[in-house]
């Protein structure tokens, strides 16, 4: 028995009626807070990526007292900074038939009908304001000679709605939010706490009222309090050890909130990105994404025959298999991420992979170079080519790139209602940390859109409705709930240090990641998932007996930081596998081998699985409780995706 | 390959640090520099020693968290490359490599190779932004920006705030960092209203944070992993002069 069924849940905050006016009506229905009262209300925002940075800045501008936390040494370093491709917005500047409704439609369809229509429609509406906001901040988007903004088509979209800043869109957007945040620091509305990690949520009288943090420099564990807590702590892709996430990305803040009562939704929905640089050996510490835009001009192929070890240039055209173009003639190399990733896995499983270990496929620019010229290719992709060469030592102008899928984004996250409030009142979750907008699969250039939509425009409106009931009764460090939370953190740190075993944290993390990649990665089976759950449980037990964490808790101790994060990854990993096991359909990034069509495509099961799976923590030794939120589709009729 | 590392170890800001020698064997040329340090740290952990503390996060050259002096060169021997993107194929079997933290008065050592760069945040707080509160923006196409200006602004805006420019500068000056932001915002129409106050306030914040003055030594640009050009300093100086002679307040 892996789980038990609980009561269904409903998103009680989403208005009904015409979808175009729902967001307007919700904003009108939400209570407001008088400007003079805002400074009496404190909001803690954890995380300073696009969602957290923009939210903290905007709440500060509104006059709230904001405390912003991040584990990095500066808010500017949050991992949103690494997003390359771009940000979608339904501006229709290209007059190519785009509209809010089309972006909404594409996102619901791209999410494989596992997201909420209301949320996605709002996201598409707000998208246009994001671009205006960012331009006003001085974000240097790519422009055309006329001085207007350039757009490109991205990740399989048939309209050009992606705004970009060369291959560094995330960096430029994040710096915009960071600068707005620092402006509020100067204005005195925001206090920033860098090199601090949230290790526990403090819940008092049923409301989220504070956090326990560890100062990563001094090791001091302390509590902080507010009228509301916002988690903007990103995704949990690092459960796989190897992913495109930054090394520090972790699930701890979300997981601690989950253990305190916040439901965790759809944990098995992970996005595996098709165009990453393959692993070069056992020493690999992370994987690097090559922007998906490369697929606009690069052609993906492998040798026709298994075990062909010739250099790519020695393989004649007739003996190459441009498999995406062959299988998906209408979309070709631009099929969505999950399809491209699984197709790469399939050809490698057939023994046709290239490079070390046969875990790679070619992404070849020879045609583009002969069609457009080397200069044109360099102008478009020069920085990406350089990055590739720096990492691999190979020149992609001469030799085809090798790419392989890697874990990139997690669509699952803490369950939130339309107001982005979790099941613990006063706890709000924004950006990748929540589950709400991408369904079972996220479209390219939509993560930046969602992070900024939540942080600049959605949360700052919806949180008022909650804060209007505040300020809530004063809580301090001596409150029993605060003492209990802080003690729990100190005990856990002490336990990790006390094991003093004979294996490093990383060795466990690598092994956990391998289990997840093998059994809860691109393709999942009932048998594999059952096995994974047993392996994870055994490894977790071993972890608490054999891990070695050197040093003390009273100083900067990076091993201890990692040890706590990995401990939480173990628990999350098990829930991911349980979620993947219970969802016996294939949808979006979740492919169950038992649920496929005759020609190997994902088969969704709308009759049985048109719901959000929101999991309740029932204790370390009890199975989690499944709460279902039914999804209904009034505006976009569910259809089976076909990219053939 | 086998290497000798001489690494700066310092338990905390109060205690003095020193170089300690470690030998690492079986280093793959495909490893990144940080993966090589990971390997050393795994071994130190199992041998009961404290691993070497160093800052890193994205490991793809964009977050700006990593930064080591490698043989006296900020981010090591490869041009336009952050420490995390430096690969061991740049070194030879038998090499001895010195690994030190950034050294600058404004960046005190926290532990081992970790330094405190919060002074950069304080420079940005002083004016490294456009005041555009959320919701107040006009349509993105309301003000066209000449492509050349947008491209030049972008180039300056690619600064990752790693601090290599400061570490490379004989004066420990943050001028390249500050000038990159002044240039980025000063080239765009959105940045014009605050242009003069911005440059005065950011330069003042830089001085207050303990960075040295710029004497045009030119060591910063070659050390910059993003290749921020030296000309941004010229732009800053011109803006500063104008702002001083025609102050807005």
From TrEMBL, chain A:
Residues 43-448 form the FAD-dependent oxidoreductase 2 FAD-binding domain. Keywords: Flavoprotein, Oxidoreductase. The lineage of its organism: Bacteria, Bacillati, Actinomycetota, Actinomycetes, Micromonosporales. Pfam families: FAD_binding_2, Succ_DH_flav_C. Residues 509-643 form the Fumarate reductase/succinate dehydrogenase flavoprotein-like C-terminal domain. Gene3D superfamilies: FAD/NAD(P)-binding domain, Fumarate reductase/succinate dehydrogenase flavoprotein-like, C-terminal domain, Succinate dehydrogenase/fumarate reductase flavoprotein, catalytic domain. PANTHER family: SUCCINATE DEHYDROGENASE 2 FLAVOPROTEIN SUBUNIT (PTHR11632), SUCCINATE DEHYDROGENASE FLAVOPROTEIN SUBUNIT (PTHR11632:SF53). This is Succinate dehydrogenase flavoprotein subunit. It comes from the Bacteria. SUPFAM superfamilies: FAD/NAD(P)-binding domain, Succinate dehydrogenase/fumarate reductase flavoprotein C-terminal domain, Succinate dehydrogenase/fumarate reductase flavoprotein, catalytic domain.
TrEMBL record, chain B:
It comes from the Bacteria. Residues 1-103 form the 2Fe-2S ferredoxin-type domain. Keywords: Iron, Iron-sulfur, Metal-binding. Its cofactor is [3Fe-4S] cluster; [2Fe-2S] cluster. Residues 150-180 form the 4Fe-4S ferredoxin-type domain. NCBIfam families: PRK07570.1. Belongs to the succinate dehydrogenase/fumarate reductase iron-sulfur protein family. This is Succinate dehydrogenase. It comes from Phytohabitans aurantiacus.
């Amino acid at each position: 028995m892996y789980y038990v069924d609980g009561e269904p849940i409903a998103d009680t905050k989403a208005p009904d009626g015409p979808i175009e006016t729902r967001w307007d009506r919700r904003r009108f229905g939400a209570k407001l807070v008088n400007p003079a009262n805002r400074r009496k209300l404190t909001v803690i925002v954890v995380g300073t990526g696009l969602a957290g940075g923009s939210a903290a800045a905007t709440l500060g501008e509104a006059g709230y007292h904001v405390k912003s936390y991040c584990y990095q040494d500066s808010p500017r370093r949050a991992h949103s900074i690494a997003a390359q491709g771009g940000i979608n917005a339904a501006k229709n500047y290209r007059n190519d038939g785009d509209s809010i409704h089309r972006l909404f439609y594409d996102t619901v369809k791209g999410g494989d009908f596992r997201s909420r229509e209301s949320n996605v429609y709002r996201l598409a509406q707000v998208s246009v304001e994001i671009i205006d906001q960012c331009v006003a901040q001085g974000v240097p988007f790519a422009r055309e000679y006329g001085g207007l903004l350039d757009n490109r088509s991205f990740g399989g979209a048939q309209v050009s709605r992606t705004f970009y800043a060369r291959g560094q869109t995330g960096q430029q957007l994040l710096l915009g939010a960071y600068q707005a945040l620092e402006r509020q620091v100067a204005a005195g509305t925001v206090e920033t706490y860098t090199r601090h990690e949230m290790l526990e949520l403090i819940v008092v009288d049923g409301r989220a009222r504070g956090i326990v943090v560890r100062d990563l420099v001094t090791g001091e564990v302390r509590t902080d309090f507010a009228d509301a807590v916002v988690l903007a702590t990103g995704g949990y892709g690092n459960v796989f050890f190897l992913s495109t996430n930054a090394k520090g990305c972790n699930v701890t803040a979300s997981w601690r909130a989950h253990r305190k009562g916040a439901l965790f939704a759809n944990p098995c929905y992970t996005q595996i990105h098709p165009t990453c640089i393959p692993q070069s050996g056992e020493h690999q510490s992370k994987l690097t994404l090559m922007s998906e835009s490369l697929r606009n001009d690069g052609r993906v192929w492998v040798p026709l025959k298994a075990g062909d070890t010739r250099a790519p240039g020695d393989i004649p055209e007739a003996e190459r298999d441009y498999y995406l173009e062959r299988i998906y003639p209408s979309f070709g190399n631009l099929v969505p991420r999950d399809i491209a990733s699984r197709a790469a896995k399939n050809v490698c499983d057939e023994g046709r992979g290239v490079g070390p270990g046969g875990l790679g496929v070619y992404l070849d620019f020879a045609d583009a170079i002969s069609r457009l010229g080397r200069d044109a290719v360099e102008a478009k992709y020069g920085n990406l080519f350089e990055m590739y060469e720096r990492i691999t030592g190979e020149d992609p102008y001469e030799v085809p790139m090798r790419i392989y899928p890697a874990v990139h984004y997690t669509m699952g996250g803490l369950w939130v209602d339309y107001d982005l409030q979790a099941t613990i009142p006063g706890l709000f979750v924004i950006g990748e940390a929540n589950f709400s907008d991408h369904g079972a699969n996220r479209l390219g250039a939509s993560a930046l859109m969602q992070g900024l939509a939540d942080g600049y425009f959605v949360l700052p409106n919806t949180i008022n409705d909650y804060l209007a009931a505040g300020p809530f009764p004063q809580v301090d460090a001596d409150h029993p709930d605060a003492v209990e939370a802080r003690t729990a953190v100190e005990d856990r740190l002490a336990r990790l240090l006390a094991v003093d075993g004979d294996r490093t944290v990383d060795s466990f993390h690598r092994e956990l990641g391998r289990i997840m990649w093998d059994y809860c990665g691109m393709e999942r089976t009932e048998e594999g998932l059952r096995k994974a759950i047993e392996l994870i449980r055994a490894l977790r037990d071993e972890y608490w007996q054999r891990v070695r964490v050197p040093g003390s808790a009273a100083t900067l101790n990076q091993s201890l930081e990692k040890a706590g994060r990995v401990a939480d990854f173990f628990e999350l990993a098990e829930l991911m596998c349980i979620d993947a096991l219970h969802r016996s359909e294939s949808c979006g990034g979740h492919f169950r081998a038992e649920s496929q069509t005759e020609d190997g495509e994902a088969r969704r099961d709308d009759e049985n699985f048109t719901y959000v799976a929101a999991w309740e923590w029932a204790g370390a030794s009890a199975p989690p409780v499944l709460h279902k939120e039914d999804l209904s589709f009034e505006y976009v009729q569910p259809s089976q995706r076909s990219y053939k | 390959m086998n290497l000798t590392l001489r690494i700066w170890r310092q338990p905390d800001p109060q205690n003095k640090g020193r170089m300690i020698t470690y030998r690492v064997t079986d280093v793959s040329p495909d490893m990144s520099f940080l993966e090589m340090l990971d390997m050393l740290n795994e071994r130190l952990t199992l041998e009961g020693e404290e691993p070497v503390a160093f800052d890193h996060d994205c490991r793809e050259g964009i977050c700006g968290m990593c930064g080591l002096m490698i043989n006296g060169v900020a981010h090591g021997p490869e041009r336009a490359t952050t420490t995390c993107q430096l690969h061991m194929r740049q070194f030879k079997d038998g090499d001895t490599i010195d690994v030190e933290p950034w050294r600058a008065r404004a960046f005190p050592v926290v532990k081992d190779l970790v330094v405190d760069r919060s002074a950069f945040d304080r420079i940005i707080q002083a004016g490294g932004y456009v005041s555009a509160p959320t919701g107040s923006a006009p349509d993105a196409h309301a003000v066209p920006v000449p492509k050349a200006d947008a491209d030049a602004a972008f180039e300056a805006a690619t600064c990752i705030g790693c601090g290599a420019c400061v570490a490379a500068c004989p004066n420990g000056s943050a001028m390249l960092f500050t000038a990159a932001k002044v240039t980025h915002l000063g080239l765009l129409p959105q940045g014009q209203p605050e242009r003069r106050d911005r440059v005065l306030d950011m330069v003042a914040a830089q001085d207050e944070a303990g960075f040295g003055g710029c004497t045009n030594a030119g060591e910063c640009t070659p050390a910059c992993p993003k290749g921020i050009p030296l000309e941004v300093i010229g732009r800053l100086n011109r803006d500063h002069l104008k702002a001083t002679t025609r102050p807005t307040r």
